[in-house]
Amino acid sequence: MVKNDKNIPSKKRRALKYGLIGLIAVFLIYHSFDVVSLDSRKKGGDEEDVTQLADAYFLQSLPKVLADAPEPCTLLAALSQKDQDWASYGKQTNIGNRYYFLIRGEGNIQEIKDSYVRVAFGEGEQACSLRIATVYIFGNEIRDASGKLALADVGELTKFNAISEKLNKRVREEIIPEFLEKVQVGQKIQITGAFALNRRLGVTDDFEVMPVQLQIVD
Amino acid sequence: MRIVNRCLWMGILLSLLIACGRGEADKTQQKQIAIIVSTLNNPWFVFLAETAREEAESRGYVARIFDSQNNTSLESDHFENAVALGYDAILLNATDSDGSVANARKAIEAGIPVFCMDRELNNPNAATSQIVSDSYSGCVELGGLFVRSLGQKGKYVELLGLVGDNNTWNRSKGFHYVVDHFPEIKMVAQQSADFDRNKAMEVLESILQAHPDIDAVFCGNDAMAMGAYQALVAAGKDKKIQVFGFDGSEDAVSSIQSDGLAATVMQFPQKIAETAVAFSGEYFEGKTSFPQKTLVDVELVTPANVSIYSSYGKE
């Protein structure tokens, strides 16, 4: 039998060599691929898309429309008129009776409740008050009231709903806590926000405005 | 005699031509619509199908209802028949969001438009257009009412619908999106009762053995809500445990009026059916591009506003 200088038979040496090469190849091939499920891959991509769409909407499209939003009391007075065409003041996303509206105004904090603050706007005959939600911020008001984001633009309904969730989360986590820390009855605030009304029910007393921006003035 | 024969032959030929021409004219004038419905055991779907048929007939179309009895194979047979019989459009209320895709594709491939009503298909290319209730948003609103009604704390049970139907999950997801934000509200059991009243009653009776101290039950449709309510009445707990449904069915609306169910979400099958028939009409007139999905609003019905609602959102 032929032996090398370390007394290892050449057959064993060859087997050892190929074994080592095989192991290195398996190691390299294994680490060349990243195996992930298609579902998780799609979910990750969708999540990124949703975040981008929600950010672009909240920081760019929405502020432009809010800049021209009506003052709350003027809007409510118009909507309360009989046979008023709500479509000229608000937006609809679906077939049905729900309309979404934007407001922009300055008012005084009247009361602070567990799930909302009541703000008084205007003076004299033009005065009105609105509930500003501080807890139940979950609907489609912020997404749909500007009319700048449609299901057809986004494609999938789940993505469209996820955008609403992102927008609401942003308000609940970034706008509300800071506001509630400082707010007191009698303070003057500037607010922009969105709300929904059902045409069948008209202007009710208990609807809440979903805030987009809350700024204490004094 | 020859002249008489000739006249006779001419007469026969003319009659044949006129008959063929009239047949052709009838065919172009009277379009045929097949309405394939998941089940006619549930009154909500009966109303959806009947409204679609009435709307189609009022527009001068011939319409026929096919009952799939919640069976995808039977639905497949209906599609094969509709294609073979030369229907011009199909209005589909699917038995299964995934399982019905292949059935709908058969019609699309044969050049027949498919308009989905209420139940979605999980493949956007399987239908010409889908007209569905905005179930997710409806249950977000219902979730808010649920949390307020429980005072932000309590235990509850969720009864799910058919697990193969997207509506089941859209409703459940919308509800949980809100309710899961409140840590003191705990779900102690979640079980499917297949959108069925009797099954819901049996399931809740069994759950109550293990969890007698629940505060509320959320059900994916009104049939299950009525079954759950029946179980609570039998156990003497109907005044303590609140039941929430979805659909706006006749018995649910009556129950809310008489302090039974706490709330439901009203769907508008009439609007869904009318839109589906209107889309078919536009297709017959040459329109080929339709929105992939059209959402129809749903509305929250509570003891405070139930007086202005009729069952199934009839207007």
UniProtKB/TrEMBL annotation, chain A:
The chain crosses the membrane at residues 15-33. The keyword Metal-binding does not apply. It comes from the Bacteria. The keyword Secreted does not apply. InterPro entries: TM0957-like_sf, UCP033535_lipo. Keywords: Membrane, Transmembrane, Transmembrane helix. This is DUF2291 family protein. It comes from Sphingobacterium arenae.
TrEMBL record, chain B:
Keywords: Signal. PANTHER family: D-ALLOSE-BINDING PERIPLASMIC PROTEIN-RELATED. It comes from Sphingobacterium arenae. InterPro entries: Peripla_BP_I, SBP_2_dom. Residues 1-25 form the signal peptide. Gene3D superfamilies: 3.40.50.2300. It comes from the Bacteria. This is D-ribose ABC transporter substrate-binding protein.
